[in-house]
Amino acid sequence: MTDREVKAAEGPLLESKLREERRFEPPADFRERAWVKDRTPWEEAERDFEGFWAKHAEAEVHWFKTWDRVLEWNPPWAKWFVGGETNASYNCVDRHALGSRRTKTAILWEGEPGDRRALTYEDLHREVQKFANVLKGLGVRKGDRVAIYMGMVPELVIAMLAAARIGATHTVVFGGFSSQALRDRIQDAQAKVLITQDGAWRRGQVVPLKQWADEALAEAPSVEKVVVLRRVGDAAGAAMVPGRDVWWHEAMAGAAADCPAEPLDSEHPLFILYTSGTTGKPKGVLHTTGGYLVGTTLTAKWVFDLKDDDVYFCAADIGWITGHSYIVYGPLSNGATVVIYEGAPDWPDKDRIWAIVEKYRATIFYTSPTFLRTAMRWGPEYPKRHDLSSLRLLGTVGEPINPEAWMWYHEHIGGGRCPIVDTWWQTETGMILIAPLPGVQTTKPGSATVPLPGIKADVVDEAGNPVPPNVGGYLVIERPWPAMFRTLWGDPDRYVKAYWSQYPGRYLTGDGARKDEDGYFWITGRVDDVVNVAGHRLSNIELESTLVAHPAVAEAAVIGRSDPIKGQALSAFVVLRAGVEPSDALKEELRQWVGEKIGPIAKPSDVFFAADLPKTRSAKIMRRLLRDIAEGRALGDTTTLTDPAVVEELRQRYIAEG
Ligand code: 6R9
User: Fold this and answer.
1) Which stretches are transmembrane (predicted)?
2) pLDDT in tens, 387-409
């Protein structure tokens, strides 16, 4: 660092003392066959930004009517492909079913108990049309909201595409959120119909979705009708409410097979997806039709280098944005074959995901750093049980990936031959914005690399000035992109205030980042995931990555708890790899390790060994709860956790160990 950079780093900005020297070039044969082989798309987009998007909107998406204007930008209000008419369901289903992909497999589904189903594009076409007629029969009209509360079953995809087909706006609520969370979302969206299932399988147990839905509906009077899929049968003991509830199979039996996709205005609302904000009230992120479809279709094609013979497996849940954009809309719009798995990754054993990769000969695999760190903890013997040679590309999303987790993924899953795409994006961005294109970009473990063609991002200080290389700041997006959210449902003021007021005209992502001397972006986590130790601002992810780089450590979360002297003191919650014994000597060794790698200031004041870390359903460590534990507070909202028991157990043990 130069003197100026050191000075800047001492100021309000994040310090970064870690340097990653490893580099990975795209393999020559991969580059040879990749959709994008050189920097032409970046050049095209810079020469003519709107022309770039127009060209790809035309090439990748079917339009009933072409747009009059590519972009109308009255910051912060955007309209894309203004005057155009399209339909997401048509693009994901009809154009393949009516074209050359009629008998191609669209969905390869595996249930947790081991049952299997395959749907061709023709099957999907028939089911989606029938269910669209069911919705119409229940009184759903264009513009109405339809809530969906299901597990990972093909009918979830069918329901989404059926709603989109008739211009109803879907809001998918993660199957496993509590009844209160469901109630709040239905109330906010004022949904007219709810689609759910009797129960869902999870670790061999039944998750009683219908029962939870009934509890939610007691306080959500906007819902007039409920469609219930029979998934687990008598095990759920679901009670049907006469006049309100209908079984999926009974409704489908009487539904006509023909329901043409409605031409919809490009800006017609496609879906609302709720995401947690810094305050308690969840934010209803609204995505519209044309721009979202263009953005997800093109990025699915380019970032995953999606080809007709690929078998694409994304292990995320459809209840969060990754599933919306990169299980449903992006891949299906490309006519891909998509693997969907219903259940837990460690059921019946910790090799389930790899067994699925092997069984379906998956070529592309997309998951979260959290899952990879968990798999690291379980040990490489699980992937070793399976032939993973079909894989040609790997992806990650959801959190910064620790370089060691990246290397583990590369070696143990990718067999050293698969490029890794670390994709940075958000519910709000709708599509991937920063990621390597795998045939072009040299990757560095831990970096999402550079913005995609057409995307302009930067790292700025409080005043909005770009910071020098390797100095941390706020990640902003400099101009609109097609799949950007258009507003927060029912709360346009919050849309303006939360995202566009700090730097007018520029989108505030809420993430911290730094750019290195090559222009690579290193996301340091949410801006609130910053610890301030004696005036030094350190990023959680760098501290955690340092711990994960120690051979004994599988996962780590580092938080700052208030300290009368230093401002904040670092507490490290560490999950050890399988077979490693916890000891006081190891705690001390880990403290020294961090001290050596980052500097004495970064040495955790205490190290606590945990069996597991609290994570949200969208695979993010909830550091806020760890702070509550470390500071002896009552726990805040835990409704978005995968397993609330984890945090309670942690709290008890933390108290016991003093
Ligand atoms: C897609 C998704 C968004 C937040 C985002 C950031 C974190 C996502 C990341 C990443 C570093 C990546 N995030 N991808 N951080 N590297 N590749 O996760 O959406 O659930 O809305 O979360 O996730 O902090 O701001 P969402």
Assistant:
1) none
2) 999 999 999 999 889 999 999 99
- pLDDT band for position 568 (cuts 50, 70, 90): confident
Q: Alpha helices, DSSP H only, in 424-561?
A: 492-500, 540-548
From the number of C-beta atoms within 10 Å of its C-beta (0-12, 13-18, 19+), residue 47 rates as exposed
Please state the rounded mean pLDDT for residues 580-591: 95
Instruction: Return the minimum-mean-pLDDT range out of 61-70, 247-256, 262-271, 527-536.
Output: 527-536
Cis previous bond, 345, omega within 30: no
Is 146 flagged in the annotation as binding? no
**Which residue has a Cα nearest atom 4 of ligand 1?**
426
* CA nearest to 395, candidates 347, 325, 348: 325
174-191 residue pLDDT tens: 887 778 889 999 999 999
From residue 591, alpha-carbon distances to 91, 524, 541, 585, 601 in Å are 54, 21, 16, 10, 11
Q: Is 423 annotated as a binding residue?
A: yes
Ramachandran quadrant class, 335 (left: phi over 0; alpha: psi -120 to 50; beta: rest)? left
Q: Which residues line ligand 1 (CB under 6 A)?
A: 275, 320-322, 397-400, 422-427, 448, 509-511, 523, 525-526, 618
398 Cα: distance to centroid of ligand 1 (angstroms)? 4
For residue 639, give the DSSP letter: T
Distance 343 CA to ligand 1 centre (A): 23
- In this prediction the pTM is 0.89
Given a cut of 70, whether residue 335 has pLDDT beyond it is yes
| Beta bridge partners of residue 205, listed in sequence order | 202
Model pLDDT, residue 517: 95
Nearest CA to ligand 1 atom 10: 399
Counting residues of the chain whose pLDDT is more than 90, the rounded percentage is 77
Of 429, 511, 544, best ligand 1 pocket probe by most atoms within 8 Å of the beta carbon: 511
Helix, strand, coil shares of the chain, percent, nearest 5, are 35, 25, 40
- 272: three-class secondary structure by DSSP: strand
Rounded Cα gap, residues 434 and 448, in angstroms:
6
C-alpha to C-alpha distance for 17 and 9, rounded to whole angstroms: 10
Residue 602 · residue 586 · CB < 8 Å: no
Q: By C-alpha distance, which of 289, 303, 301, 376 is closest to 334?
A: 301
DSSP string, 340-394: EE-S-TTSSSTTHHHHHHHHHT-SEEEE-HHHHHHHHHH-THHHHTS--TT--EE
Q: Are strands 77-82 and 69-74 parallel, antiparallel or unpaired?
A: antiparallel
Q: Do 294 and 484 meet the contact criterion of CB atoms below 8 Å apart? A: no
Who has greater pLDDT, 635 or 91? 91
Task: Tell me what ipTM this predicted complex has.
Answer: 1.00
What is the average per-residue pLDDT within 370-391?
95
> How much distance in Å is there from the Cα of 320 to the middle of ligand 1?
11
Name the residue of 421, 426, 530 to mutate for ligand 1: max ligand atoms within 8 A of Cβ: 426
143 within 8 A of 168, measured Cβ to Cβ: yes
Question: Among 92-101, 104-113, 564-573, 576-585, which is the least confidently predicted range?
Answer: 564-573
Structure tokens at 40: 């032409």
Joined tokens for residue 580: 């490693």
Residue with tokens 């706020």: 474
Confirm whether residue 502 is marked as ligand binding. no
